[in-house]
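Quick one, tokens below:
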């Protein structure tokens, strides 16, 4: 098995954290999909990372499919609850956290275009998704210790990777002061080796 990923992708980070939490050995092949020498289109027609290449040469993408697969193949540290109602709630947390990352990544890419090509309306639309998304995460977390139920799960991993990506690319978004409960969760997650070992690197 091999994981193809960039070191800045929050989706890839989610997968790397899951691999570590579940003690699954998997070499990492760094591929930056924006670079001319990227080979990711050979393994994912969408040209996106992360991609998991299995031992038989078949491939899995995207990150949500990969983490579900990994949680299924190893019973160690279950991250998606067996009970369907809880599992679907965990997937909802993941969808919201990933969706915030989608909006943030769009803004990051838009800002890289020539100033005259950038659309401020498009950026504002994405900013509103981030604002509403963070508010919703904070409301749903409330005073709970973990995002879903009484224990650490994929929901916390997805939210932690999302908040880490905002810190990495958008230091101007002051989510920590607006949402102290999310800051508490992020600080607790940062102490886990799987999080500490995968902090985004430029
Ligand atoms: N929904 C996908 C998103 C993956 C994604 O957008 N990855 C970015 C890197 S953060 C990428 O590879 N972008 C290249 C492109 O869009 O061409 C997932 O969860 O894996």
């Amino acid at each position: 098995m091999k994981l193809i990923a960039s070191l800045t992708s929050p989706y890839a980070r989610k997968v790397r954290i899951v691999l570590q939490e579940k003690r699954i050995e998997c070499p990492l092949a760094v591929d930056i999909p924006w670079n001319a020498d990227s080979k990711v289109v050979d393994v994912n027609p969408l040209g996106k990372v992360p991609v998991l290449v299995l031992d038989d040469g078949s491939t899995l993408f995207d990150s949500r499919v990969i983490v579900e697969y990994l949680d299924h193949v190893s019973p160690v540290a279950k991250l998606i609850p067996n009970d369907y109602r809880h599992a679907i709630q965990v997937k909802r947390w993941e969808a919201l956290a990933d969706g915030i990352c989608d909006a943030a990544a769009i803004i990051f890419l838009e800002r890289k275009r020539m100033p005259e090509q950038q659309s401020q309306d498009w950026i504002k639309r994405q900013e509103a998704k981030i604002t509403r998304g963070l508010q919703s995460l904070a409301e749903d977390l409330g005073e709970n210790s973990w995002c879903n139920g009484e224990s650490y799960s994929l929901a916390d991993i997805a939210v932690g990777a999302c908040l880490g990506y905002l810190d990495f690319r958008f230091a101007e978004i002051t989510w920590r002061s607006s949402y102290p409960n999310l800051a508490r969760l992020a600080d607790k997650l940062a102490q886990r080796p799987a999080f500490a070992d995968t902090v985004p690197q430029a």
